[in-house]
Design a protein that fits this description.
Two copies of one chain form a homodimer.
Chain A (H helix, E strand, L loop, with lengths): L9 H18 L4 H7 L5 E2 H7 L5 H13 L3 E6 L5 E6 L1 H4 L2 H33 L1
Antiparallel strand pairs in A: 1-3, 2-3
Chain A binds a DNA duplex (30 and 30 nucleotides) through helix 3 and helix 4.
Keywords (chains A, B): DNA-binding, Transcription, Transcription regulation
InterPro entries (chains A, B): HTH_HxlR (IPR002577), WH-like_DNA-bd_sf (IPR036388), WH_DNA-bd_sf (IPR036390)
Pfam families (chains A, B): HxlR
DNA sequence: GATACCGGTATCCTTTAGGATAGTAGTATC
DNA sequence: GATACTACTATCCTAAAGGATACCGGTATC
């Protein structure tokens, strides 16, 4: 949030805090945003999602998908093939989160670099002490 | 995330998912981002933060502040007045989250409107049925 | 006949987040 | 002398998130 769009009064500050709280209320948790990221590449089946989201268990995946569906972020379509095919797809409303996700993605990459540099610097410091 | 910055291969998809997971790992939870929002208006004292973040208990606030400090997002400065004054302040690294927070803020506002419209539409539908 | 894929459920369990309530030492205020 | 403010900590507790493991019916494949 830049200073330009956040007025500096107490009430305005609380309002900003609440806007962010509202947003977090819907997209909180470890998996929802990553799931929406995975679905950017197009509709996916259950198992495909499970493979993209390493370490997610089917139970959790299924629950999170239901949540996302309830909130209007994904649709679930069953095709009557044998065996059945179930396709999950982002809705237009999920696309309204594009910028949020994109910024989070970019920041995540920068953060990873930041962490790497920190531990490198730390290693240097230890070496210096050792000498 | 726009299609322009996310390549559509399986590996690239997993990488994007992981970038977002990395980001969420640090800023997850109900309070961290709202706290950083509150601190945009300038350094704040403990009680000021508590007032901005309605309903947060001192225990949780204190724990979240420690987390943010450990991750390098805020600094804690004690002034030796009587009684002591403790000031929390965003670091430069917290500012690197500006865009993420700003987008989340904007989306939160739009989402609130969206929800309102939905419930209005629902009310209309109920009326129509009742007639 | 054994194994594997699909789209999940069922059951049980641990961990964490978060909340409720109370209290503390020191100062200032009424 | 009672109350209020600051910046917390301590204790206890609940609810939710998340994970481990196993399993299901159906199909296809080897």
């Amino acid at each position: 949030m830049d200073h330009k769009n956040i007025p500096h009064s107490k009430e305005a500050c609380k309002a900003s805090v609440n806007a962010v709280r509202d947003a977090l209320y819907v997209v909180n948790g470890k998996w929802k945003l990553p799931m929406l990221v995975s679905l950017i590449n197009g509709p996916k089946r259950f198992k495909e999602l499970q493979r993209d989201l390493e370490d997610i268990t089917p139970k959790v995946l299924s629950k999170e998908l239901r949540d996302l569906e309830l909130n209007g972020f994904v649709t679930r379509t069953v095709y009557d093939t044998t065996p059945v095919t179930v396709i999950y797809e982002r809705t237009d409303y999920a696309n309204s989160l594009s910028k949020v996700i994109s910024e989070l993605h970019d920041w995540g990459m920068k953060h990873r670099e930041h962490i790497k540099q920190m531990s490198r610097a730390e290693a240097e410091a230890r070496k210096a002490v050792a000498v």
